[in-house]
Design goal:
Layout (H helix, E strand, L loop, with lengths): L10 E12 L2 E10 L10 H6 L3 E4 L5 E7 L2 E8 L1 E3 L10 E3 L12 E5 L6 E5 L16 H10 L63 H7 L9 H13 L4 E2 L38 H13 L3 E3 L8 E5 L5 E5 L2 H5 L11 H8 L5 E5 L19 E2 L4 E4 L9 H12 L8 E4 L2 E5 L14 E2 L2 E5 H20 L3 E2 L4 E4 L2 E3 L2 E4 L2 E4 L1 H8 L1
Parallel strand pairs: 10-21
Antiparallel strand pairs: 1-2, 3-4, 4-5, 6-7, 8-9, 11-16, 12-13, 14-18, 14-22, 15-16, 17-18, 19-20, 23-24, 24-25
Helix pairs in contact: 4-9
Length: 516
């Protein structure tokens, strides 16, 4: 085994479910027993995960260490520490001044502390108990940690600590000039407005289409607060019917940008040696679900088989809905990529421009990064080992350092004529703002269009803009997530701000912890 100081030593064996106790907090870890090592006991990530350990760097140079009581997640205990000088190249070593108590004399191992150096070490007892069943039943720290991470709504979620990666450990792309061959070519082959269907002032009753059925329309629940009048709601249904191919509910219905709009993305990399990082085994409880995700993405054309010498890590995280999301660890690729310095617009400017409007529409592209095709010459760089076989991406890799900048430029290019007076996209979210006035009459009502007194002027103008933007995106091959669709609503949350006719305020969920 290679130690923290870079030396290698023989492993004598492993101690599974090693019982330990610090300040009356019992826990178990797995330990490797070494023939020779620079430490009597080295506590690493398993210990940090078991007790939700916090390590804080103070301006004075000291380091604070605290652990969580598994029986009371709200209770944290601070452990004194002091620097320990040792020949280690790349890690910072602390000695924890813990007062550890032996558990029971029947335990195979007990934990004591060295009086001379306060360094933790193990004292083997004269006999070995072959089974762990005879030991006290401690709450499993690993299951506790997994439960809190995978089920954030549970009572254990308050004990979860999400630590950001330090700047010194972040992988940075290469700042150098981009060869001309790697530039993305963007062009609009024909003016989409020439094929824009006109909106009728007297919209017809809705009838099921080839893609948008009555059942799908009812599931959208478009007029929750009865903000729209009956004729206005019929007009909205007609707009969705005209642009039904721009809606997607599943992976199979997801679209992709037309090649005549955007050339396939080529990943600009410097000279390097291919990497092959092997993944850990997938937990048996989710392996069937993971395989199904890969099958669905194969059917949608997101993955294809690969014979490359590259191989990157990947893992799964749970979405808010509880479904699994595949995440590629593209840090090796990011380290050799030529940097694209493009960034999204300033959030404050975007929110300020959207505030004080009569109504809003929010469009969310269905898995936005999957819309832009990846050039064949760059696909091997995204190879991973799936449970089925080695696969590679055919579209823009999520997690790649330049993906955000390229995708945002794609969306803004499509809607360039509508920015900022009508719409202002932010990555895969497109915010469409209504008129600044309700056009109220002297009698307390609202001005309506001459052809139909059942449609207000401000709603007609807004839905006309929505129809135009829908048509722009559909012509480019984009599809919007039907489940995240909000059209002609009086208020909306944009980047953590609640925007309505009165202005904008921070969303309650963002300031709840401060108010409480």
């Amino acid at each position: 085994m290679e130690g923290a100081n870079g030396t290698t030593n023989w492993t004598l064996g492993c101690a599974e479910y090693l019982p330990m106790c610090t300040d009356n907090i019992p826990f178990v870890v797995h330990a490797h027993v070494m023939a020779q090592a620079p430490f009597r006991l080295l506590l690493s990530q398993p210990f940090q995960h078991a007790l939700f350990c916090w390590i804080e760097d103070f301006p004075s140079g000291n380091v604070g260490v605290s652990v969580c009581d598994l029986t009371d997640p709200t209770h944290r205990i601070s452990i004194p520490s002091h620097p320990h000088k040792v020949q280690v190249a790349s890690v910072r070593i602390l000695m924890l001044s813990c007062q550890l108590q032996p558990l029971l004399q029947s335990h195979p191992l007990s934990v004591t502390s060295s009086s001379s150096s306060s360094l933790l070490w193990l004292t083997p007892l004269p006999f070995f108990v072959p089974r762990f069943q005879s030991l006290p039943q401690f709450p499993s720290p690993y299951s506790f940690f997994s439960q809190a991470r995978l089920y954030p709504d549970s009572s254990t979620a308050d004990a979860v600590v999400l630590a950001y990666k330090k700047v010194a450990k972040k992988v940075c792309p290469v700042p150098t000039s981009l060869p001309e061959d790697f530039c993305t070519i963007r062009c609009i082959p024909a003016n989409p407005l020439l094929t824009l269907p006109p909106l009728p002032p007297h919209p017809p009753n809705f009838s099921s289409g080839t893609h948008l059925t009555q059942e799908c329309l009812n599931a959208l629940d478009l007029n929750q607060g009865n903000f729209l009048w009956l004729e206005e709601l019929k007009l909205l249904h007609h707009i969705l019917k005209l642009n039904e191919l721009g809606l997607a509910w599943t992976e199979e219905e997801k679209g992709r940008f037309q090649d005549d709009y955007f050339s396939p993305v080529k990943i600009p990399v410097i000279e390097h040696i291919p990497w092959a990082h092997h993944n850990l085994q997938i937990p048996s409880s989710i392996v069937d679900e993971v395989i199904q995700i890969f099958k669905d993405k194969f059917a949608a054309g997101v993955y294809e088989h690969s014979d490359a010498s590259y191989q990157s890590h990947w893992f799964c995280v749970k979405k808010k809905s509880g479904a699994l999301r595949l995440v590629h660890d593209l840090q090796p690729l990011n380290a050799i990529t030529i940097h694209n310095s493009g960034v999204p617009p300033l959030a404050n400017q975007l929110i300020e421009s959207m505030a004080g409007r009569t109504c809003y529409t929010m469009l969310d592209l269905f898995v936005g990064y999957d819309h832009h095709t990846l050039d064949i010459s760059s696909r091997d760089l995204t190879t991973i080992q799936s449970p089925i076989s080695a696969v590679r991406l055919t579209c823009l890799p999520q997690g790649w350092t330049n993906a955000g900048a390229i995708f945002h430029e794609d969306v803004t290019f499509i809607l360039e004529l509508e920015i900022p007076h009508v719409a202002w996209p932010y990555m895969d979210d497109c915010s469409i703002k209504g008129p600044a006035s309700h056009y109220e009459t002297a009698y307390g009502g609202y001005d309506t269009i001459p052809e139909n007194p059942g449609i207000c002027t401000f709603i007609w103008q807004h839905l006309s803009n929505v129809h135009c933007i829908f048509h722009h995106l559909c012509c480019a091959g984009a599809t919007m997530s039907a489940k995240k669709l909000f059209i002609a609503v009086p208020k909306v949350i944009i980047l953590g701000h609640k925007c309505n006719y009165e202005g904008r305020v921070l969303d309650d969920s963002k300031i709840a912890c401060i108010q409480d």
